[in-house]
Amino acid sequence: MDLVSCLKKEGSENAMNTNLAKQDMSDAKIDSLARPDALSVMLRSHENAITAVDSVISDIDEAAGLIADALRNNAMLYYVGAGSSGLMAFADSCELPGTFRIPDSQIRMCMAGGIPVDGSMPGYTEDDISDGEAEASSLNKGDVAIVVSASGSTPYTVAFSQVAKKQGAKVIAIANVKGSELLNLADVAIVLSTGVEVVEGSTRLAAGTAQKIALNMMSTQVGILMGHVHDGLMVNLHVDNIKLQQRAKTIVSQITNVDIAQAEHALRVAEYDTKLAVLLALEVDETHARVLLQKCGGRLRDCLLLINNNTKNNDPLRIK
């Protein structure tokens, strides 16, 4: 049986041959395959990465809970990595302020050698233990660090984690090698067992895919836990361009059933604070709306339930 046929089999036969497929993939000389077959092998490796993430759902959820608690308490969230793993961490760190309006001041990216600005990413920086230790020295008790390393043994990330723990911070480790030093240091260890890459050692492939998925899921769960998602909508987005202005108007209109013009007016009054605009569109007085959001911890669903209950009871909270 050739490699591609083995990897493409479905159903029970595919399940029976899982170990064989993995062995074939690790032994394959991918550069000797026909071009479509080589791409098929690559795709199967990424599908295996998804399976690796599926097996650690509970760990990702635990990590998200730690992060949400830290951010609610105005603590810092650090993303840490080197090389390709650092790029995965960096991408996720950049999304939180825009998607969930997490303050930039609460997020810090620490990457071996610094964040690349010209496409150059020297490999030797990951060996700089002193740099990792120095970066971690600013952490405090209550802070959380998400540390990503495919091997789980990168000197920079291990050194950072050791100092972070001494500083009283929590460490969430994401690695692709079970039993690695980084995972053993962690408060929450997320093991993404993606196995041998189709281009051996190129961890930007399946390992990177698994890391990206895990990080996406973790940070999205953080947004949900903090009340920044309502009915699948980004109700705490940072509105800083025309596209997002339109999205915010649509969100307010969809939740409140007001027209776009009314939604836009509410957003302008709320200075594009979407949660506040939703309450204003429902004719809640601005002062009461702010108090209500604070009382409910920013969870719009709880606010709406209170409004509905108070409306039924003729409570003056809802001022027309």
Task: Give an account of the 3D structure.
It contains 15 helices and seven strands. The longest helix is centred in the N-terminal third of the chain and has 20 residues, at 35-54. It has helices spanning 3-8, 11-16, 18-27, 35-54, 57-72, 83-100, 129-136, 155-166, 181-185, 206-225, 242-256, 260-269, 274-281, 286-295, 300-312; strands spanning 77-81, 107-111, 144-149, 170-175, 188-191, 229-230, 233-234. It is globular. The protein has 320 residues and is of the alpha/beta class.
Sum this structure up briefly.
The chain is built from 15 helices and seven strands.
Q: What is the end-to-end distance?
A: 73 Å
What would the principal axes of the Cα set say about the shape?
globular
Identify the strand order in the major beta sheet.
2-1-3-4-5
- Mean pLDDT across the residues is 89
Helix content: 55-70%
| N-to-C order of helices and strands | HHHHHEHEHEHEHEHEEHHHHH
Largest sheet: 5 strands, parallel
The tally of helices reads 15
The SS-based structural class is alpha/beta
Rg, please?
A: 23 Å
What low-confidence regions span 5 or more consecutive residues with pLDDT below 50? 6-23
